Amino acid sequence: MIVYPAIDLRGGICVRLMHGRFDQVTAYDEDPQARLAAFASAGAAWVHIVDLDGAEQGRAVQHALIGRLAASGLAQIQSGGGVRAVEDVERLLEAGVARVVVGSLAVSAPETVIGWLERFGPERLTLALDVKLVDGVPVPALKGWTEAAGVDLWTALDRYAPGVARHVLITDVGRDGALTGPNLELLAEVRRRRPDLRVQASGGVSALHDLTAAKAAGCAGAIVGRAIYEGRFSVEQALEAVAA
């Protein structure tokens, strides 16, 4: 399983949100380049970078900075936030991003995203399905988690036939940044329904056993943010835990 240390960018600095809310933000680093270098030196082969301003505003805001981080070659970069047009995908890939994350459009415009998957290949895109539980039903949240989609998660996934997409990132927004543990039941259900997809767990990781539990649930990767920034465990310890 791949551990993806996270760098969430807002105004050019590293931050973390609570429950995806832009009014509940904690700033950690003024220098994202130094943070990326630290993750890479700790052994991280991949780093997950998000343009939070882009996600909130619905347009690319910090893609130039993300491109500079990717161009450093310190680690493979998976990145998104504000990806709304094919030009955004092209710009990030040309800058050296290994895999572009597509969020809201993966739900609201699946035909468009399927076209991107056909054009760039399923290894170059990750579908990010961020969900809120509504009466126990996982419903995708759109536009920086500020709006609910009109379909449930399972309908959104069904729009991508097996073989069309490969990577999917599932975030339980209610657990994001809260250090309450990932939604293992939801992740296991995604794996059960769609064994063809390589699932990345996101939201709530607080301890090493959360990573091993996500691996046991069949996840191919896990995004880790606040737990690392607040010293609950190190990148080295996370990599050791999932390698065991």
Description:
By secondary structure, the protein is an alpha/beta fold. The chain has one domain: Aldolase class I (TIM Barrel, Alpha-Beta Barrel), CATH 3.20.20.70. 36% of the residues lie in helices and 30% in strands. The chain contains eleven helices and twelve strands. It has helices at 32-41, 52-57, 63-71, 86-95, 104-108, 110-120, 153-158, 184-193, 208-216, 226-229, 235-243, and strands at residues 2-10, 13-18, 21-29, 46-51, 76-80, 99-102, 125-134, 137-142, 147-148, 167-172, 198-202, 221-224. It has an eight-stranded parallel beta barrel with strand order 1-4-5-6-7-10-11-12, surrounded by seven helices. The mean pLDDT is 89.
Give the total of domains: 1
Q: What share of residues is helical? A: 25-40%
- Given helix and strand content, the structural type is alpha/beta
The major sheet is characterized as: 8 strands, parallel, barrel
* Oligomer type: single chain
Shape: globular
Rounded to an integer, what's the Rg over CA atoms?
Answer: 16 Å
CATH class: Alpha Beta
